[in-house]
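Justification of resources, computational component.

The compute hours requested in this renewal are based largely on the per-chain cost of generating structure records like the one below. Each record pairs the submitted sequence with a full C-alpha cell output. That output is archived, and it is also reused by downstream analysis tasks.
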Amino acid sequence: MLDNTEAIYIDKVESLSTSIRLVSKVGKEISLYCSGVGKALLSHMSDEEISKIFENSDIRKHTDNTCTTLEQLMEKIQYTRKSGFALDEEENEVGVVCVAVAIKDFENKYNYAISISTSKQRITNQKINLFASYLLDAKKEIEKQIFNDGFKTGK
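The structure output for this chain reads:
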C-alpha cells in the first residue's frame, strides 16, 4: 500500500515449498526507490511526482545495487513502464530478487502492488518472465473484480 515515500506490506504469503524466509512482514515499510513494489507504484506517476518523492526520501545504499541517484531510478522506471512490471535485483536486500506490478484501487489510482520475491540463486530470466506473467494475470483478475463486481463505487 502506498504511503508517501514508502510502501507498507498489508499481506504476505510464505512459500510452502522452500525454507527461504525474507525480511518482509505485514506492517513493515519499504522505500519506493529501492523495491519492486515501490518502482511498480512509481511507474504510474509523472516524472515530476517521482522526482519529488525521491527528494523527500531518506536515500540509503542498502546493497551495492541500490539506486542512489534520481537518474538511476528513472532508468529503472522507464524499464518498468515499458515492460509492465518492476524488478528489484538485490537493491533492497542482498540475495533477493523481486518482480512486482501495481494495481488500481476502486478510485482508479495505483495505491497497491503485488510481488513475488525469491533468492537470487534460484532466479533466471525465464523465471522472471514467468513471475511477471503470473503477476500481470493476477492484476487483471483483481482489477476485474474491483471494477466489474460493484466495488467501483466503493459499495
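Residues 17 and 137 are 22 Å apart (CA to CA). Strands lie at 2-3, 6-8, 29-31, 86-89, 96-104, 110-119.
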